[in-house]
């Protein structure tokens, strides 16, 4: 059985040129908006980090370095993409 939650009503004092007035305001509801990243952008992030890692690894360690750094860059891009793919905005 659900128990109803009591809403608190706040009273605030407003002072203007005509005097003092007390106004009651209902609690404000915040709207939550979730922005999701498209699959195309996710692929671009992961692919770009893979290619970037392979380029740096190729310059430093040759063919073997390019493979190792490409895998490391792809893994890092995947972690970054999964952590930042949903942005929550409260309005």
Structural features, described:
There is one protein chain. A two-stranded antiparallel sheet has the order 1-2. Strands 3-4 form a two-stranded antiparallel ribbon. The model has no long low-confidence stretch (mean pLDDT 83). The protein is of the alpha+beta class and 91 residues long. The chain is rod-shaped. It contains one helix and four strands, in the order E-E-E-H-E.
Ordered list of secondary-structure elements with their pairings:
Layout lengths: L9 E7 L2 E7 L6 E5 L2 H46 L1 E5 L1
Antiparallel strand pairs: 1-2, 3-4
Jot down its keywords.
1 helix, 91 residues, rod-shaped, alpha+beta, two-stranded antiparallel ribbon
Per DSSP, the total helix count is 1
Which percent bin holds the helix content? 40-55%
Q: What series of H and E elements makes up the topology?
A: EEEHE
**Shape label:** rod-shaped
Compact summary:
This protein is α+β, with helices and mostly antiparallel strands and 91 residues long. It contains one helix and four strands.
